[in-house]
DNA sequence: AAGTCGGGGAG
DNA sequence: CTCCCAGACTT
């Protein structure tokens, strides 16, 4: 009953929006599964305005899935730089390679087939299935959760398995099976433009007279979200070692935060060391130079070979689950040692006498377990760094 | 079921 | 500040 009213009116509302051409987004009306998949992956947990420039950049760099599949991972990560959730980028490449290798460059034309691609979850599979292939699968994203929670005044906590099942059921119940693509577009647009999180425009809502939450006065309480945990406080010390136009960088491994990105050698006080994890109070008295030396020691670098050139920080870097205070400590070769030149080619200057940058790691006893290398400043631009470091690089013009 | 994974814009 | 965004994956 209410389902029918909801579907009819939201569908009509969507048609109006399309005619007025609100949100002139490039993937609207798109049928190419590659472009749809690309845009949906870019937009996972990402606002449209934020992802839009990346969409254009990727499409220009990789017009087809074959172009993407042939790309080196570092190039994909570089294009993704700044967008966050970097496993999306690596999964994007993996999925492209799978499509080319296993399906001759054609995307699977079923929900289940799409779902098997890395980085393609319930939402993205439904989006590609409906937008590219017209299949009757309802999308369930943040917008749809909110719209359904309000219209039916559902008080289940999200995220949660119970809620997911119920909302998915509702979403498919109201799906317009005559035009799944237009419907999915309409309900998401409706959530983004009318039934917004903070200030929903109930005065102009086409289903206000049937909205459960509006009738019950619970609009701003829907959907019910779970309580958030406090953020973990971390203090990171990056060591920026410069020598003769080069800087030492290392590649992070493929797990955890900033997976696969590049960074300056990083030292972080072990969490288990000391009374407890760092607290905000502990940071006020933090002496940059002392921290720099501590980091140098922590990374096993002979402090005698490097002279301190100052620190920038703390760079406050807020993530959804971490509160990061980052420092970048700069060092250059100690003058005394530089004068000695070739004494010990494995010394602090590591390769001054013509060793290739390809020889990694050996920085005065620095561990070789990581993928470290000296790189010319001009080449830094080709590597993907975490935002906290690109911001630092921008202000220091390196 | 809970934890992890980024970054930015709006209010 | 807080919230949350065209979520997915791991444990």
Give a quick summary of the entry.
With 398 residues, the chain is α+β, with helices and mostly antiparallel strands.
Topology:
Blueprint: H1 2-20, H2 33-42, H3 48-61, H4 65-69, H5 73-80, H6 87-103, H7 111-115, H8 122-133, H9 142-151, E1 157-158, H10 161-174, H11 180-193, H12 212-216, E2 224-225, E3 232-243, E4 246-251, E5 262-263, E6 266-268, H13 280-284, H14 288-298, E7 306-318, E8 322-333, H15 335-340, E9 371-376, H16 387-396
Parallel strand pairs: 1-2, 3-8
Antiparallel strand pairs: 3-4, 3-6, 4-5, 4-9, 7-8
Helix pairs in contact: 1-11, 2-3, 2-8, 8-11, 9-11
The chain binds a DNA duplex (11 and 11 nucleotides) through helix 2, helix 3, helix 6, helix 8 and helix 9.
Describe the structure.
The protein has 398 residues and is of the alpha+beta class. It folds into two domains: 2-225, Orthogonal Bundle (Endonuclease III, domain 1); 232-396, Nucleoside Triphosphate Pyrophosphohydrolase (Alpha-Beta Complex). It contains 16 helices and nine strands. It has helices at 2-20, 33-42, 48-61, 65-69, 73-80, 87-103, 111-115, 122-133, 142-151, 161-174, 180-193, 212-216, 280-284, 288-298, 335-340, 387-396, and strands at 157-158, 224-225, 232-243, 246-251, 262-263, 266-268, 306-318, 322-333, 371-376. Strands 3, 4, 5, 6, 7, 8 and 9 form a seven-stranded mixed beta sheet that branches. It has a two-stranded parallel sheet with strand order 1-2. The longest helix is centred in the N-terminal third of the chain and has 19 residues, at 2-20. The protein is elongated, with a radius of gyration of 26 Å. The termini are far apart. 34% of the residues are buried. Mean pLDDT is 89; it is low at 272-276, 340-362 and 364-369. It binds a DNA duplex (11 and 11 nucleotides) through residues 39-51, 82-88, 91, 118-124, 127, 139, 141-144, 159-161, 184, 188, 191-192, 197-199, 225, 228-229, 256-259, 317-322, 386-387.
């Amino acid at each position: 009953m209410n389902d029918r009213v909801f579907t009819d009116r939201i569908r009509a509302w969507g048609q109006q929006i399309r005619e007025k051409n609100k949100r002139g987004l490039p993937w609207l009306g798109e049928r190419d599964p590659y472009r749809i998949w690309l845009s949906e992956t870019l937009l996972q947990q990402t606002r449209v305005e934020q992802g839009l420039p990346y969409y254009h950049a990727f499409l220009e760099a990789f017009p087809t899935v074959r172009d993407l599949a042939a790309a080196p991972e570092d190039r994909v990560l570089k294009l993704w730089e700044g967008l966050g959730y970097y496993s999306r980028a690596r999964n994007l490449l993996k999925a492209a390679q799978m499509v080319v290798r296993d399906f001759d460059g054609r995307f699977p034309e079923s929900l289940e087939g799409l779902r098997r691609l890395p980085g393609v979850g319930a939402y993205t599979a439904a989006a590609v299935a409906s937008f590219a292939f017209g299949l009757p699968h309802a999308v369930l994203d943040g917008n749809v959760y909110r719209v359904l929670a309000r219209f039916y005044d559902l008080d289940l906590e999200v995220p949660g398995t119970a809620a997911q099942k119920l909302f998915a059921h509702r979403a498919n119940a109201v799906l317009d099976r005559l035009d799944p693509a237009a419907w999915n577009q309409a309900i998401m647009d409706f959530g983004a433009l009318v039934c917004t999180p903070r200030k929903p425009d109930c005065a102009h809502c086409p289903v206000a007279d049937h909205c459960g939450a509006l009738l019950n006065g619970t609009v701003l309480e829907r959907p019910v979200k779970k309580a958030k945990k406090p953020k973990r406080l971390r203090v990171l010390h990056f060591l920026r070692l410069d020598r003769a136009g080069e800087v030492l960088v290392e590649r992070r491994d493929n797990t955890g935060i900033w997976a696969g990105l590049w960074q300056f050698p990083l030292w972080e006080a072990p969490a288990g060391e000391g009374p407890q994890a760092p607290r905000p109070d502990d940071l006020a008295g933090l002496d940059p130079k002392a921290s720099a030396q501590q980091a140098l020691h922590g990374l096993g670098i002979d402090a005698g070979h490097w002279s301190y050139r100052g620190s920038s920080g703390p760079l406050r870097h807020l993530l959804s689950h971490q509160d990061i205070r980052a420092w970048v400590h700069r060092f250059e070769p100690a003058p005394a040692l530089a004068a000695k030149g070739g004494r010990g080619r494995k010394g602090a200057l590591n390769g001054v006498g013509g060793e290739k940058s390809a020889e990694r790691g050996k920085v005065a006893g620095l561990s070789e377990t990581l993928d470290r290398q000296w790189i010319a400043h001009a080449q830094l631009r080709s590597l993907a760094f975490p935002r906290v470091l690109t911001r630092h690089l921008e202000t220091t013009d390196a």
